[in-house]
Specification:
Order of helices and strands: EEHHH
CATH superfamily of one domain: BFD-like [2Fe-2S]-binding domain
Strand order of the largest sheet: 1-2
Helix content: 40-55%
Shape: globular
Structural class: mainly alpha
CATH topology of one domain: Arc Repressor Mutant, subunit A
Largest sheet: 2 strands, antiparallel
Number of helices: 3
C-alpha cells in the first residue's frame, strides 16, 4: 500500500498561520477559567499583591489550582521589577 502525501505548504519556522496576522496571541495562565497572563498583569498593575486577590478578581486558581505557581511567579517577577526601579 502506498502512502498518500498531501501537498501542504511548509509551516516550519512560522509562529502562527498566515490568516492570523495582526491578531494578538493570548497566553493562558489559567486554562480552567480562561484567564490570560495579560489579565493577571492588569490585576497586578491595579494593586493585587497576592494570589488570593488575583483569584478573587479573575477566578484564576479557583478550580484545579495548577496555575497558582504561575501566578505567584508573575507576582514575584513584578515585585522584583518594582524593587529594581
Amino acid at each position: 500500500m502506498r502512502y498518500l502525501r498531501l501537498a501542504l505548504p511548509k509551516q516550519a519556522g512560522r509562529a502562527r498561520p498566515p490568516y492570523a496576522k495582526g491578531l494578538k496571541r493570548a497566553m493562558y495562565a489559567c486554562v480552567c477559567r480562561a484567564v490570560t497572563e495579560s489579565e493577571i498583569n492588569e490585576c497586578i498593575a491595579a494593586g493585587a499583591k497576592s494570589a488570593k486577590q488575583i483569584r478573587d478578581a479573575t477566578g484564576a486558581g479557583s478550580d484545579c489550582a495548577i496555575c497558582i505557581r504561575r501566578i505567584c511567579a508573575m507576582l514575584k517577577r513584578n515585585t522584583e521589577l518594582a524593587a529594581a526601579s
